[in-house]
Design the sequence.
């Protein structure tokens, strides 16, 4: 049986503030019009951000290191 999105999020995040912050920041960017980093027919920004995180396409960089920039895609 496939897990629901909340179940998959819970398994992946496992209480990690870092991953939660990463998802929140990326979802906000997607809502504001940022282009998804994955090809998908999915329109839910939470699901898109989670797919990006699962595939290792985004990471959270401390705000002290950047000035208001988005999560940086990994090469």
Sequence:
């Amino acid at each position: 049986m496939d897990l629901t999105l909340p179940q998959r999020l819970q398994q992946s995040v496992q209480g990690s503030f870092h991953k939660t912050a990463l998802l929140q920041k990326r979802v906000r960017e997607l809502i504001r019009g940022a282009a998804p980093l994955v090809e998908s027919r999915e329109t839910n920004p939470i699901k898109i951000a989670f797919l990006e995180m699962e595939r290792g396409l985004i990471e959270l960089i401390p705000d002290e290191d950047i000035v208001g920039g988005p999560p940086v895609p990994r090469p």
